[in-house]
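I hope you will forgive my troubling you with a question about protein structure. I set the record out below, with my sincere thanks for your time.
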Amino acid sequence: SLDDAITLALVDNFDIAIARYTLDIADTDILRAKSGQGGLLGVPTGLVTGTQGGTGATLTVGGGPGGPGGTTTGAGGAGTGTGGLVLSTNGAGPTPEVLDPSVTGTVQYEQNTIPQTTTFITNTNTEQINTGTYDFAYNQGFLTGTALSVGFNNSRQTTNSPRNTFNPTLNSSFKAQVTQHLLQGFGPGVNGRFIVQAKNNRRIADSSFRQQVIFTIIQIEDIYWGLVSAYEDEQAKERALVQSRQLAADNRKQLQIGTLAPLDVVNADSQVATDQQALIQSQSNLNYQQLLMKQAIARTLHDPELGTAAVIPTDRVSLAPTAEESQTAEQLVQQAFANRPEVEQGVLILKNDEINLKAVRNELLPTVDAYAFYGGAGLGGKVNPAIFCQPGQNPATNFCTPVGSVSSSGYSDVFTNTFNGSSPDKGVGVNINIPLRNRFAQSQQARAVIEYRQAQLRLQQIYVTIRIQVENAIFALTNDRALFQAATAAREYAAQELEAEQKKYRFGASTTALVLQQERNLAAADSTLISAAAAYARDRAALSQILADTLTKYGISLEQAATGNMSQPAVIPGLEPPKPFAPPAPLEPGKIPPAPPGAPPASPAAQSLSPSVTTTQPAPSQPPQPQQPPPTPPGTTYPQ
C-alpha cells in the first residue's frame, strides 16, 4: 500500500538518511558556540534529491533542490550566498570571551652555567644555577564580557654563589586578575550571540528535515502512482492483445469458410503484432517503475531476492473529495503560511541577522576595559652558611650577615607567606583604545544592514510565491478532477462502442476495420484515463506538499522520522521486522569506521537496519500476472 511504501521510505530512504545527519551537525555547532571559541561552522539545509523517479519539487529558501548527497543552501556559515542572499557578515562583531575554563601548567628543570668576569660574586670563574619551575594558571571567560585569570608560580633555585642568602631558594607567588569590557564586548547579548544563533540554526535544521521528509514522501507518492499507472497500462495492453488475437482467430475461421477476404486477416494480424509490441513496451516500463520503487524504499538492491521480487501496489486513485477541496483559496493560503518550512526558516534567518546587526554595531564602540588584580609572594629556603660573618669580620665592610639574623624556612612557610598578605601586590586600571576612523567596522555594519534588508525582501517573496503556488495547485486539481471524470465517461463509452461493434460484426453487419478502430479507441481511452488518474493523484499530493500538511495527513511523527524507528511498521506479507540496532564499538580517536560491504553506513540516528523481503518461491524476472486482479477499493471508477 502507499502507507507501507511511505513507512519503508522513512526507515531506509537514502535522502532522509543523509538529511538526518544535519540534526547532529547542528548539535555540534551548539556545543561549539557554548565554548566561546570561534564562530559557527554552519548548518547545511536545502533538499537532498538523490531518489530517482519522483517529480515533486517546491520552493526552498536560498535556492532550488540540491543533488544526490548534497544541498545548495546553508545557515550560519556553510553554503551561504545562494538564491540571491548574501551572508558574508555572519559571525562579525567582537570576539566573545572563551567560556570553557582552561588550566595550564609548566614544569621545567634548567641547569645554567654562566661565565663570570669577576670572582666577587661566586669566588669562581663560573656561576652554576639550577632552577626548577612549577607554574600553573586558570583562565575562564563569562557571558558578561568578564575574563578571570589566576596564576600560581613556584620555583626552586640552587647556585654556587656564596653571597645568596638562601641556597636552595624557594619562590612562590600568585596573582588573580579580573578584566571587564565596559563598551565593546560588554554584556551577554554580544558574548552569547553565537549560542542563540546556533540554537536558531538547530531549529532551521529541524525545519529543513521536516521539509526533506515532506519532499521525499511526495516523491514516494509520485513513484507509487507511476507504478499504479504502469500496472494499469500493462493490464490494458494485455486486454487489447487478447481482443486482437480473438478477432484474428475469428477472421481465420471465416476465411476458411469463405466468408471473409484475406486482407482482413492480414489487417487483424498486423493489429496483433502492434498490440504485442505495445505490451512488451508496457511491461518494460512496469519493470522500471518497480525498480524505482525499490530504490526509494530500500537501503540496498544487492539482495537477489529483492532485485527480482515484484512490487504490486494495492491502492488505487479515488475521486473522493479531500478536505482541502472544501476550503476557500484564502483559507488554504493562510494554512500554507502557518505550516510551510520555508517561512519558518526565513523568519529564523531574520532573527539571526538581527543578532548579527547588534554585534556589528557593538564593534563600532571604543574598547574600554577595566581591570583589577591582587597577588602575593613568599620567599624562603635553607640559609647559605657562607653568608654569615666569620670571627673578626665586620658586616659593614665584609658584606656578610651576622649569625642568627636569618633563619631557614621550608616550602610550607613560603606557601603561607604567599597567601597571608604579608607581601601583597594589588592594583586597578583601565585600558582604552579609541579608533579615530574605524572604517573596517563601519563597512561591516553597513553591509550587515543591507544583508538584513535583502533577507526581509526574500521572506516577502516567499509569501508571494506560496500564494501563487496554492492558487495554481487549486486550479490544477480542479482541472484534473474534471479530466478524470471525463476520461472515465469516455472509457465507458468506448467500451460500450466496442461491445456493440463486436456484436454487429458477429451478425455480419460490420467489418474488421471498424472493430479494430473501436479497439484502438478503447486503448486510447484506457491510456487517457490512466494518465488522468495519475495526474490527479500527483497534483493532490502536490497540494498537500504546498500546504505542508503531508505529515499530518499520514499521521507521521517527526521524532520517529528523525530516528527511523516507526511505531507502526509496514504491513507486507513476507517482510521481516527490522533487527535491533547494535551500536558499534568505540573507535580510537582519528580513525574512520569501516563501511559495510555493498552499502554506505547508516546514520547514527537511524536505530534500525534495512528490512529484507523474502518470498516462498523465486520471483520471476517478469512481474506475475494474477488470474484475478487486485480488489477494487471503494470509490474506484476505472477498470481493473
